[in-house]
Amino acid sequence: MSRRDELLALARTNPEALVDYVLALEEQIRRLEARVTELEARLAQNSRNSSRPPSSDGLRKPPPRSLRGPSGRKPGGQPGHPGHTLQAVAQPDHVQVHSLTRCPCGQCGGVSLLGQPVLDHERRQVFDLPALQLSVTEHQAEIKRCPVSGRKVSAAFPAGVLAPVQYGPNFRGLTLYLFNQQLLPFDRLRQTCLDLFGQPLSLGTLSATNQSAYDALAPVESAIIRGVIQAAVVHADESGLRVAGSLHWLHVACTPELTHYGVHANRGTEAMDALGVLPHCRHWLIHDHWKPYYKYEALHALCNQHLLRELKFLAEELHETWAAELTAFLIEWKNDPLVLLGLDEEQFHRAHARYRAILRRGRRDHPRRQAGQGRTAQDKATNLLDRLEDFDLSVLAFLIDPQVPFTNNQGEQDIRMIKVKQKISGCFRTLVGAQVFARIRSYLSTCRKQGHNLWEACQRLVLGQPFMPNAPASGP
Fold first, then answer.
1. Which residue, 14, 194, 223, 277, shows the most beta carbons closer than 10 Å to its own?
2. Rounded mean pLDDT, 376-399
3. 152: which strand partners?
4. How far is CA 248 from CA 178, 262, 281, 401, in A?
């Protein structure tokens, strides 16, 4: 008997059973359709419309589509831009005069000009490197005999001259710069030193230089932490880091003037408490809604760039109209010059009311889970609406205080280069090595933000005289 005949027989003899069977099939189809929709949505996610990193896009990267509107300006440098053209110097290091002995005009047969006075010079300057080589200085300390005690005594060597053969501060500063700022792995740094100077750098020398720098930076790190705690706005972020073969976490707390990095085996509040920065922040703290941040008593602001990516996904892939409206709302206010001046109370209430109205339109199709419904799974739109409603003042913090930026780009930018370090060199072999690198990198990032030359910063660090960071403006 065919399946059709079986169902017809069931309909004649037991219609209630057939109805139950059909309803069960409909429920199964509904679940399968929901699962297909979820999987299709997951496949549609990329770095443009979610928090996935660009590296997860693979070779089929989505075409770039900026959330910024057209500026109306022509591409390239704008009027008034200073440019970066090589400029001549007033006092060159060397001058070569090229004599003119015969006339090149072509009308006099090359008459001699030896007796003619020099009227002027046409000047051209060539910028180049001198020959690269290590300069060896031998220190000889005199040894004499004391006429009173009869003992042999010797003169003191200069500070820092500690071994029979060693590298000087300039060379060690260069290795510190190339390893920690330019992110050269040890093998490439060793080859670079061999190619340029004829000396293969040893791992022990580099490790000792880094460890010495780490020790010298203890007071600098303390000053950076104090400055970040006092800052009016602090950006926070965290990212995974492979250390000693296991997953650790790199934490950053930063401002436009200061950067503090810390490495810890934990991602959450245990790590943040141990690093000693966020527990003491009482002003604005900008982050991406990682729940442990809310343990702290700061004023919380959310990164709207993360929200715009989630809204883009809902608008483009799931065709949620309210998501497109909220995207337009956020971008409109982001570009409004009133934000830089600060909204008054009435202006903020109008913006807040419009924001809540957009969310209410989204709630028509995605109602909030009611009490007693348990922990049933929700779709992405409902989860995002819950967050946008519950943390509305954190989303709109950039409208509350003009000091609060629209995004957490500062934190993401500061964490990016250490991720590049990991991609180039692989994991850190020890936790101590990761902590040494994090402290040195905190110093270099802070120096760059405060306008110091990083080559000079490394030289001073090797000499035990690092730059001390300037304190930022305190919060309200």
1. 277
2. 92
3. 145
4. 25, 11, 24, 35
